[in-house]
Amino acid sequence: MEEINRLDIATKREDLNRLMKTTLKHYVRKNVWFPIVTERVRQRGGTIRYFTFTTPQLLDVKLLAQRGLLERNERGYPGLGFCEYIDLEYERILRALRWCGWKYKGTFENMVRTYEAFDSTFEFDVVNLDFITTPFPGMKSPLEGTWGVYPKTTAGTT
Fold first, then answer.
1. What is the DSSP letter of 144?
2. Is residue 18 part of a domain?
3. Cβ–Cβ < 8 Å for 103, 76
4. Could you give the number of structural domains in the chain?
5. 43 lies in which domain range?
6. 1: in domain
7. In terms of Cα–Cα distance, which of 133, 143, 100 is closest to 4?
């Protein structure tokens, strides 16, 4: 696993905490993508399968579960998948979740490029590619290249 120094972890936590609490982020969550997810659930029935880059606070995960859009049972979140590359954060997220249906410990780049099951098992209804760090080395911004993985993550969806 990649060696990540404590400054990187502290910076990521600070960035995530600041981003997750912004008024704009909450506005988009409440008025843009929750209605879209709600419509997806209405069309499909049941609950969603959700992939995200979460934090140990599980803000989006908890909000989706509270709204009945993401299943939560006594074990955890069977319809949830996440990816995290920092060992300590990965463990904190797992403790907060207790259990989830799909997880990957490593970088998003490695997951997309090398994980065999990515092509065959990446079957999520909602993929939250909400990057705050660069997903692939050499990119200038966190969003550069996001659309490059979009066809792979949306194959077979309507």
1. T
2. yes
3. no
4. 1
5. 6-154
6. no
7. 133
For 22-43, the pLDDT digits (tens) are: 777 777 788 888 898 899 888 8
* pLDDT at residue 149 is higher than 70: no
Q: At what angle do helices 87-97 and 6-20 cross, to 10 degrees?
A: 50
Q: Strands across the sheet with 50-52, in order? A: 100-105, 77-84, 50-52, 126-128
Measured between alpha carbons, how far is 51 from 103 in angstroms, rounded to an integer? Answer: 9
CA-CA-CA-CA torsion sign (64, 58, 31, 158): negative
**Does residue 113 form part of some domain?**
yes
Backbone angles phi, psi at 102, to 5 degrees: -155, 135
Inside any domain, residue 28: yes
Pairing of strands 50-52, 77-84: parallel
Q: Which residue has the tokens 């409440």?
A: 30
Angstrom distance (rounded) from CA 19 to CA 17? 6
138 pLDDT tier (thresholds 50, 70, 90): low
